[in-house]
Amino acid sequence: MRVLADTRIAPQTGFPMHGHRDFEIVTYVCEGTIAHEDTTGAKGLLRMGDVQAMTTGSGVMHSETNPGNEPTRVYQIWFHAEEATLPPDYTDLNSPPAPAPGELTIFASGTPGVSGLVRIRQDATISGGELQRGESLLLDLASGRRAYILAVDGPLAINDAGIPARGGAEISDEYSLRIAAQDTPSRVLIVDVAEKFMAPGV
What are the distances in angstroms from CA 109 to CA 24, 80, 179? Predict the structure, then answer.
């Protein structure tokens, strides 16, 4: 993983056309709306809970703006692509399906044997869910992998440790995790990555 950013975008502002190359970029909308447009002719609108997965590949220019009157907050997660100069592509997941209680929706995955709603070109999995007060879920982490756990809205407990609202934890050398909401509900976003990965030129 190259970048993990918690970004706020003020109303009627954003990022004008700019370029990326050979990255897989996953965007999760925590609140608000974000409009995007790129040089492939693609455009769309993402709202709270929506996800976008983009292959920048051989190169793409795109813009991201907040067209609304309230602040927008997003997580952006960048991975080096496993191959250079792939064809640029993107998928918007508008209103992705909610998981059953105690489970996660796998939004995007390039991990062998793990299917997501969209494929990315790196050995990583991004999943998410919502925990009500007192609810928990179990996460198994395979050997040779690490996880980044993000408390989107409210505080979470991970085994015997706590993380605050909008906080996060990097987990390695732990293979069984219990993630629980505390006094308030919270969405949780989990990034599961291989400790060793393939990336040209890296």
Answer: 11, 14, 21
